[in-house]
Every structure is written in structure tokens, then in C-alpha cells.
Amino acid sequence: MSANRTIPLVNLSDFENGDEATRQAFIKQLGTAFHDIGFVGVTGHGIPKSLIDDFFVAAKKFFALPEDVKRKQEIPGAAGQRGYTAFGKEKAKQSKVADLKEFFQIGQETEGMSDEERNPRVAEVPEFMDLGMKLYRQFEQKGNSLLRAIALGLNLPENYFGEYTKDGVSILRAIHYPPITNEPASAIRAEQHEDINLITLLVGASAGGLQLQNAAGEWQEIVPENDEIVINVGDMLQRLTNNHLKSTTHRVVNPPRSEWHKPRLSIPFFLHPRPEMSLNVLESCVSPSNPQHYPPTTAGEYLDERLRQIGLKK
Questions:
Q1: Which CATH architecture has domain 9-309?
Q2: Which of 87, 245, 269, 277 falls between 20 and 30 A from 179, CA-CA?
Q3: Any residues with CB less than 8 A from the CB of 235 and at least 6 apart, and which?
Q4: What is the pLDDT of residues 177-206, one digit of tens each?
């Protein structure tokens, strides 16, 4: 493990396969990381590297398609939650300019869905959706393992989150940051922001640039190693725990000018519950020293509000 890491590293197999003492140690490590930093690196997750690599290749093929072909995958009225979103549409909630990215989002598919409700298939890259759904299921499974550990760390029933994430509205997003060809006005690849959801799982990007803002306000680079997946707390989990678990500000900065010609591809999985889940602050997270910071709301209401703020919903 590198000596200059900015986030702790934990092994998910300690929780999934370890004895009780090993599981308890993992729960404590994870809870401390999310309370202190909001980010953690995870190894031992068991997601096949070949699946991740194959999806990266398929995503590159999709983003290399002509603009008019990609735009056929845009779904009117979907607020970017499925299909393609063109370059320059999404921005951070406090930003006046759009991020330097385009993306494709793969949403939940359940039995009984009509073809119109499912994710759009890309005829030009048929393997893209097949691989994407396989990776979606892997992320969903491992994300729920992490949520079980989080629940136990909060003294909640182990399946507290699982009741709400079954058939939840999680998103697998393939993000393409094209080569930078002109001096950006004030835009960077992804302006500073916090994620909306419960937790985010991110597999290593094809280029650097991911940074988190620490408690002192300093920007620190996150460099995943080997098969590590980077996990961070989202705003829904921060609200639920009354800021006990931290949704940390992060961004993707532009590369040095000498590397502007290099594109960047990253694959985050945003783990969301079903819309009806209550985000009312947990009573156990309220105390005289930490009074309630947030009004009652549901996951669906909060997601709707945030999608409007970032420009994906009118």
C-alpha cells in the first residue's frame, strides 16, 4: 500500500467472509473512515477485473460513435436517469458553467418492465448494455454488503438499508471527459460537488484528476491502486445520520496542458434506495451537541430537488 494515500483501505472479504471479530473490526474501520473523511478504498470485493475491463472497452466504443448516433440514445423526460446525456448539460449545483463531460446512465431493470421502461439498447455496440447490466448487478450486490456494515455500525438492523434498496433506483454511469481542445472559460471536467445518493462505488478511472476536499479545505488527490474501488458517502446518508457520516466535497480537475489531448473515462455506481424511503434524521444521531440539521423528506423528493439543481430536470 502506498505511503502517501489520502483515504484508508479496507478489505470487504473481511466483512463478507470473516469471523465475528474480523467483521467487527471492518465495521469499525469503515465507520471511522466515513465519519472522519467520507471516503474509503475497498479491496477484496470480488468484482471480476475482466468484467470491468470489458465494460470500459464497450463504453469507449460508445463514446467514439458520431454525435448524431449517440443522441439517438437520449430519452426525453428521463432527466438523464437513463440513456445518453450530451456534453455540456450537467453542472454542479453552485456552478454557472457546465462540466466538461458527456455520459450514459444505466438504471434499474425489474421483472414486468416494458421495453419502453428499460434501458435503451445501443445497436452499434450491442455488448455495451449486456456488460453494463452485469456490472450493475455486481455493484448493487457489493454496495448492499457495505450498507449492511454501515447499518451495524449505526446500531441499526443489518438489513435496514436492504429493505429500501431492493429494486431501488440506482444508476451505473459511464462518464466520458473528451480531450480538451480550447482554453476552458472557467470549467473543469467535474466541478466540486457532493453526490446525491446513499453511497457511490467508483472503479479506477482511465486517467487521474479525482480530488477530495479535506477538513482543512485542502484538495487531495485520490489515486486508486490495483483492483481498488473508491467508495464515498452521499448526501442521503449524510442527512439520515445528521452529518455523523460525511458526504465529502470532491471534483475532477483538468489535466496539465501537456495532457489535454488525453480523454478520461470513469465508471461510478450511485446506489439509491426506492423513492419512498424516509430520509428523516435517525433519532440515535441527534444529541445536545449535534441537534437535528435537516427537515423531514423522502429519497424521491430529495432526488427530484437535486436533479433540478444540477440542470438535469426542468
A1: Sandwich (2.60)
A2: 269
A3: 194, 195, 196, 197, 247, 302, 306
A4: 888 887 776 666 778 889 999 999 998 665
